[in-house]
Amino acid sequence: MSCVSVLWTVLSVLFTGACSLAIISPFWFERVPDPDDVSSDNSSFVAFGLLRFCIKRNLESILEMDEWSDFKNCKFYSSFHGIPSLFWKFSVVLYGIGVLLLLVAILLAHISCCFKKVCKRSVFGVAGVVQISAVIFLVISLVMFPLGFKSQFVSQHCGLTDMFNPGQCSISWAYTLAIMSTGLLMLCPVMARHLMVTTPMAKATVV
Hints:
The chain is an alpha+beta fold. It contains seven helices and five strands.
């Protein structure tokens, strides 16, 4: 077990955790009321993500907003069919596949670090392929999400919207986290490739 393999394992766990946090967060895009104009027409806080959404109406002051408190009270969409955009449905499926593949890669990383007898080149090679596949699924999912801005749900809460145009809504921290985590995840397949090349091949044994 080398320092590089330990670093690869740690980074794989961290980035997978970040991607998992992002998918359950509703704060992908949000509409924050103007603090200088919290009127009846501009008094609602709205946030939405792949699986959850938040709507807080009739704010009398911008100080009433508390994202971390509201996070616990945000709702899941009623069902998969209740997700308001076809593009978001595809995005959920692709993102979910990506996270599952990352979990498989973590299992392989655990095997490579904890079981010396199976710390072979093939483990790193397979893990690298799994991780690059996961990154591809995640990237497609993240690019597909803004295509759903044309849905009635987004238009209702964000004003005049279109594909890649969120109207009065703006990007929030969870979507940024998903993008950054996916970008940094690209380092992991590179490290897995390095480990595959530098790890000696297992010697054949005769029984």
